Amino acid sequence: MFPDLTRDDVFRLETRGLWLRWARLADAQAIVRLAGEKAVAEMTARIPHPYHPDDAERFIFQSRRSNADGHGLQLAITPKGRPNCLIGMVGIGPDPDTGKPSLGYWLGTPYWGKGYATEAARALIDAFFAYGEGDELTASARVINPASRRVLEKCGFAYQGAGLVELPARGGLYPADHFRLDRRAWESLKSWSHTGLVREPVCVEVEVDREMSLAS
Question: Given the DSSP bridges, would you call strands 196-199 and 172-182 parallel, antiparallel or unpaired?
Answer without folding.
Answer: unpaired
